[in-house]
Amino acid sequence: MEANAQSNKLGYQLAKYRERRPSPDNPVMFKTLTPVTVRVGKSLKGKRVRMLDKDHIILVNQVKGRRARVISSTGGKVVGWVSLCCDIGTPLLQRLDRG
To answer: Most exposed residue of 14, 17, 32, 95, measured as fewest CB within 10 angstroms of its CB?
Structure first.
């Protein structure tokens, strides 16, 4: 509140900034913070496709809840789904900056 009032006095316009969500038109790079399991579908009970090691760079083109769809960086083919965070909220992936 106070910052907003001061910005009006100074002539600044404050605005919230949130990066665009990953989508088929806006794929986003993430880095794994711990080893993660890639599964066939969104379900946590789905068949395991593979494991990704820590510090692996992945391309995500959709987020549903705490699940993210991983695609191939070469052909854009769906690889599977991973969790963004564990059930207690510890992050498993970190969004990478564009620059």
So the answer is: 17
Q: CA-CA distance, 69 to 27, in Å (whole number)?
A: 10
pTM recorded for the entire structure: 0.79
- Round to whole Å and give the CA distance between 46 and 40: 6
pLDDT at 98: 64
Task: Quickly name the fold that domain 19-95 has.
Answer: SH3 type barrels. (2.30.30)
User: What contacts 82, CB < 8 A, 6 or more positions away?
Assistant: 32, 36, 37, 38, 39, 52, 58, 67, 68, 70, 92, 93
Alpha carbon distance 41, 49 (integer Å): 10
